[in-house]
User: Fold this.
Amino acid sequence: MRKGKNKAEKDLDSLKTDYEKLHLSIRTIGLDKKSEQWRQEIKEEKIKADQREKKFQDTRVR
Assistant:
């Protein structure tokens, strides 16, 4: 019986470790942002893209 419990404890420890690694990865790459944060970031990137496009068009006109 002890051997089976030992395996279960090892499996649980392994799952905990995997969960912690996954959670850290999610935070590291920013997937844990709230939808409002994503919307704001997308809005800012669109503004930057529009500014670059305008600058490109202005350069072509010259």
User: Anything to note?
Assistant: The chain has two helices and no strands. The chain has two domains: 1-31, 34-62. Residues 34-62 form one domain.
